[in-house]
């Protein structure tokens, strides 16, 4: 298991937040402890925290594939890390991320414990709260479970 430490690699930190007014996702990119880039996304209230984590990770992978060489990705979402490592994951967004990771083999996705003072993680936590109201609008379909529930309400 690899533990978090500040080094000379380019590190990406992702985070999400969900409140009654919306859901946000964000990431920060650091090199040698210096912030290089930040991004925040605004999602609909129906998006789950898991979806938001995946969307933030996907945005970072897209950025990386455009030539921004992220060498480590840290997320406080263990479920996201496990989903990305699962070769049989049914979620389309997970498969999209896996495809991007396959193209960029040198990028490990790692879990980091939240709320213990890691600088990148704490700054991302602050940014994501702004993302709920100020972020770039990220469009995505409703989760399958919500669509299923809506159809049941319509027909039964």
UniProtKB/TrEMBL annotation:
Organism from which the protein derives: Araneus ventricosus
Domain RNase H type-1: residue ranges: 6-133
Domain of life: Eukaryota
CDD domains (alphabetical): Rnase_HI_RT_non_LTR
Alphabetical list of Pfam families matching this protein: RNase_H
Name this polypeptide is given: RNase H type-1 domain-containing protein
InterPro entries in the cross-refs: RNaseH-like_sf, RNaseH_domain, RNaseH_sf
GO MF annotation: an example: nucleic acid binding
